[in-house]
């Protein structure tokens, strides 16, 4: 693969003494959508949370190995710096309840004490909300609380919030599992439109979703990376028996 | 790689917790240190002697211990029928609805009135009434005394037992009650044979909490107990409690031993209430654990 | 269950119901009486002069309790200033930190404080502040009140912050916000109404307290905002006037009682409304 944006080398993740991810060697292609799939408990969310070093905040969370973002080993960086370059969107939409839509969009700047002039802030907010396909719906109510939006809109607001920081990668952890089909479709469309500017890694347990939007798919089982490749090839001609069984619904 | 500001922040927050601990320990230590002189002076007879004569440097705290216990116990006993009735009324018969809200608000109001106002009202309304009764009975019409103090205490602690018990009673699972109804039991029988046995430790805890409150109650008692430093011989006699003797005499305590004696009384009071409260909370915790299992 | 004759059981049921209802309603009697007396005698004593003038010596007409109103305000304000930072910090520690020795013993300390009689706080404040300073003061009174308020603030801060969903913290952390800023700018603002309610409940508790002020703030016939001098307070006025031998002062005591009760009940009401609103935030 040319110029992958993220490379993991012998990545191991622990909860205390319990080994959850076993020697993951993965290359995430730049400016594509990569899906991480697998049955419950296979470690896909853990892998995602290793990328932005959120795993270390869980009780007993430990990482061994290396993760390269471009040519920097992010495990040797300050985690806070990592998280400004790799953003995250969670399963349940979580806009900050005490902030307006406007403030939520630039929350990354505000909370970090980064000063923005009014003009700069306005521009960042608009760009982010447009990028999240939310601008037209909220441009007149920017100063209302974020929690007044529908579930799908809240999730797009969270995507805008992540986009506003201009990250190189955005991680999404089952972002549509709490949403209805229509909102899900919106988000899927949105992600496809975003991949030209930011690399997307999405954890999903929905094979249909992976099939629809992911260029590449990684299949995890019991903490091991079983198979990785272009989605179409993985789905139609899986090399590993376990991948095939998962895709045909035998387990998971 | 933890940033300096995070470490600093954590240290500050942690020191608040430590500060609270130091505060309470300091409180205990201060009381003990300043109470020591009187114990050195009178020894353990401080706790058992019944003469409190500051002028002659005789300090026996027994009358106050007795006064405290009698008023508190009487107060709780008098309040029981009322607080339990309210607890059952709100927990069982009318757990919701307008009447319930009205009663609950009234109970909360009772709990919110400051102690000094209870004392004032007690002094000017209940004491004269008590005097009339005492005249009828042919005894010294003090008006103030153990009886009056117990009545005022009873009124003040009704809300405490009532609200704790009410919560416990509401927790009784309805399927237990329905099983009893299905067997043809009347309302009262369900209360007696299902609700009370299930909730009895919670009710007990509520009573203990109220008792702890009653022991520590100062102002209302000070104003209606008559302030006499002797053993009461009947419930119509004036007396003093640990809290009321401190309230009355602290500001005028002339010499160090006298002050130390009063501080020792404060220490005793503190220990009493702490033990009562710890016990009450222990019982509540045991009850909650039982519910969850 | 004994099955006595059916009609007898019905009668017992009715009687017990009656007994319970009777006692429950009688309980309302003292409350009504107190409120009635407060309203009747209190209103008689309150007028514009009462609320805005200083007390006059016995025998002279008029006089008011403005120094007590101001004094109470000062005491409450200073107590809150001392109790809130310490209390919120301790509550924050208890809600965030891992369970261990410090958490355990801090909780024990808070429990002890919560159940301690207010007069004991007064004694301690006397020994800590009045004795070294050789004078009564508003400062010592505030300290006594602050100690009393502390457990309430700690408890409600801990409970509020515990309920805030972890996802909120995660969202901020994922944006690269350091931990301390996450707490200060996301978690605490989200819990603000709960914490404020706790503070209000604490204030309601100390506003009516007399015992801790008896030998700390001590009371004063003057209006003085110097925290190092003794200060008047509404509960002290009620106590001193009620136990004095002067009927004039008794009247004023009713007026002060009404003002005090009104103040305290308003605080309780506000705290109650706050509790209800805060509970449905998430």
Topology (SSEs and partners):
The complex is a heterotrimer of chains A (252), B (293) and C (282).
Chain A (H helix, E strand, L loop, with lengths): L5 E10 L2 E11 L4 E5 L6 H8 L9 E9 L2 E2 L5 H7 E4 L11 H5 L1 H5 L6 H14 L3 H4 L12 H13 L5 E5 L7 H14 L4 E5 L3 H7 L2 E6 L2 E7 H6 L4 H7 L5
Parallel strand pairs in A: 3-8, 3-9, 6-7, 7-8
Antiparallel strand pairs in A: 1-2, 1-4, 4-5, 9-10
Helix pairs in contact in A: 5-7, 7-8
Chain B lengths: L3 H39 L2 H4 L3 E2 L4 E2 L2 H32 L4 H15 L2 H23 L8 H25 L3 H9 L4 H30 L2 H6 L17 H8 L6 H37 L1
Chain C lengths: L5 H21 L1 H18 L2 H5 L13 H31 L4 H15 L2 H16 L4 H26 L2 H9 L4 H12 L1 H16 L26 H9 L4 H33 L3
Helix pairs in contact in C: 2-12, 4-7, 4-10, 4-11, 5-7, 6-7, 7-10, 8-9, 10-12, 11-12
Outline:
By secondary structure, chain A is α/β, with parallel strands linked by helices. Chain A has 11 helices and 10 strands. A 6-stranded mixed sheet of chain A has the order 6-7-8-3-9-10, sandwiched between helices. A 4-stranded antiparallel sheet of chain A has the order 2-1-4-5, with helices on one face.
Q: How do the strands line up in the largest sheet of chain B?
A: 1-2
CATH fold topology of chain A: Rossmann fold
Chain oligomer state: heterotrimer
How many beta-strand runs of chain A?
10
How far apart are the termini of chain A? Answer: 29 Å
- Mean of residue pLDDT of chain B? 87
CATH homologous superfamily identity of chain A: P-loop containing nucleotide triphosphate hydrolases
In angstroms, what is the radius of gyration of chain A? 18 Å
Beta-strand content estimate of chain B: under 5%
Continuous helix count of chain B: 11
The first-to-last residue Cα distance of chain B is 43 Å
CATH architecture of chain B, by name, is Orthogonal Bundle
Which fold does the CATH topology of chain B refer to? MetI-like fold
Task: Report the order of strands and helices of chain B.
Answer: HHEEHHHHHHHHH
Largest sheet of chain B: 2 strands, antiparallel
Number of helices of chain A: 11
Low-confidence stretches of chain B: none
Query: Given this structure, which CATH class of chain A is correct?
Result: Alpha Beta
């Amino acid at each position: 693969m040319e110029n992958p944006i993220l490379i993991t080398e012998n990545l191991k993740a622990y909860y205390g003494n319990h080994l959850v991810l076993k020697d993951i060697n993965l290359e995430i292609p730049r400016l594509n959508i990569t899906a991480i799939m697998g049955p419950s408990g296979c470690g896909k969310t853990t892998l995602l949370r290793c990328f932005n070093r959120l795993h270390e905040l869980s009780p007993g969370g430990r990482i061994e190995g290396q993760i390269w973002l471009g040519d920097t080993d992010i495990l040797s960086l300050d985690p806070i710096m990592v998280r400004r370059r790799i953003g995250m969107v969670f399963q349940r939409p979580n806009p900050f309840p005490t902030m307006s839509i406007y403030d939520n969009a630039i929350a990354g700047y505000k909370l970090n004490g980064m000063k923005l002039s009014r003009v700069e802030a306005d521009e960042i907010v608009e760009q982010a909300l447009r990028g999240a396909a939310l601008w037209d719906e909220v441009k007149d109510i920017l100063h209302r609380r974020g929690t007044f939006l529908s579930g799908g809109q809240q999730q797009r607001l969270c995507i805008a919030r992540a986009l506003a920081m201009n990250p190189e990668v955005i991680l999404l952890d089952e972002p549509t599992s709490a949403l209805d089909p229509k909102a899900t479709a919106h988000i899927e469309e949105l992600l496809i439109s975003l991949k030209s500017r930011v690399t997307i890694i999405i954890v999903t347990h929905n094979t249909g979703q992976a099939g629809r939007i992911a260029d590449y798919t990684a299949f995890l089982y019991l903490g091991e990376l079983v198979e990785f490749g272009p989605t179409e090839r993985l789905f139609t001609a899986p090399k590993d028996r376990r991948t095939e069984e998962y895709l045909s619904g035998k387990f998971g | 790689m933890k940033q300096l500001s995070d470490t600093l922040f954590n240290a500050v927050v942690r020191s608040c917790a430590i500060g609270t601990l130091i505060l309470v320990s300091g409180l205990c230590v201060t009381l003990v240190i300043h109470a020591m002189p009187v114990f050195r002076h009178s020894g353990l007879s401080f706790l058992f002697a019944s003469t409190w004569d500051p002028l002659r440097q005789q300090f026996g705290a027994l009358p106050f211990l007795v006064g405290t216990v009698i008023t508190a116990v009487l107060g709780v006993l008098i309040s029981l029928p009322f607080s339990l009735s309210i607890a059952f009324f709100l927990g069982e018969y009318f757990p919701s609805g307008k009447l319930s809200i009205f009663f609950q608000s009234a109970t909360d109001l009772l709990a919110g009135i400051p102690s000094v106002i209870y004392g004032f009202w007690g002094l000017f309304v209940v004491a004269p009434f008590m005097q009339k009764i005492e005249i009828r009975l042919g005894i010294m019409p003090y008006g103030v005394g153990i009886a009056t103090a117990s009545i005022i205490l009873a009124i003040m602690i009704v809300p405490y037992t009532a609200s704790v018990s009410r919560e416990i009673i509401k927790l009784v699972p309805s399927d237990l009650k329905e099983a009893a109804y299905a067997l043809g039991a009347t309302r009262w029988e369900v209360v007696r044979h299902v609700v009370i046995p299930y909730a009895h430790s919670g009710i007990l805890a509520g009573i203990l909490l109220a008792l702890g409150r009653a022991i520590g109650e100062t102002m209302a008692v000070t104003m209606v107990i008559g302030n006499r430093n002797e053993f009461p011989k009947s419930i119509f006699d004036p007396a003093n409690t640990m809290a009321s003797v401190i309230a009355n005499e602290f500001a005028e305590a002339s010499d160090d031993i006298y002050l130390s004696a009063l501080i020792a009384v404060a220490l005793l009071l503190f220990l009493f209430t702490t033990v009562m409260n710890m016990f009450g909370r222990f019982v509540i915790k045991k009850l909650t654990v039982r519910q969850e299992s | 269950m004994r099955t006595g004759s059916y009609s007898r059981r019905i009668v017992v049921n009715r009687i017990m119901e009656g007994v319970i209802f009777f006692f429950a309603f009688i309980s309302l009697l003292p409350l009504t009486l107190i409120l009635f007396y407060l309203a009747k005698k209190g209103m008689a004593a309150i007028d514009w002069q009462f609320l805005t003038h200083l007390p006059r010596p016995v025998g002279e007409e008029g006089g008011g309790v403005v120094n007590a109103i101001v004094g109470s305000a000062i005491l409450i304000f200073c107590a809150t200033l001392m109790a809130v930072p310490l209390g919120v910090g301790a509550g924050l520690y208890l809600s965030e930190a891992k369970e261990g020795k410090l958490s355990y013993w801090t909780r024990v300390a808070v429990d002890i404080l919560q159940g301690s009689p207010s007069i004991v706080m007064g004694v301690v404040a006397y020994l800590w502040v009045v004795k070294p300073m050789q004078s009564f003061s508003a400062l010592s009174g505030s300290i006594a009140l602050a100690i009393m308020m502390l457990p309430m603030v700690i408890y409600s801060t801990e409970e509020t912050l515990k309920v805030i969903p972890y996802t909120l913290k995660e969202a901020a952390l994922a944006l690269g916000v350091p931990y301390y800023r996450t707490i200060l700018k996301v978690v605490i603002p989200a819990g603000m109404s709960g914490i404020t309610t706790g503070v209000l409940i604490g204030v309601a508790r100390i506003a009516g307290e007399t015992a801790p002020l008896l030998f700390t703030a001590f009371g004063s016939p003057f209006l003085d905002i110097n925290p190092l001098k003794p200060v008047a307070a509404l509960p002290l006025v009620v106590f001193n006037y009620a136990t004095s031998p002067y009927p004039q002062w008794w009247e004023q005591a009713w007026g002060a009682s009404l003002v005090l009760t009104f103040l305290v009940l308003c605080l309780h009401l506000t705290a109650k409304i706050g509790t209800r609103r805060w509970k449905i935030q998430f």
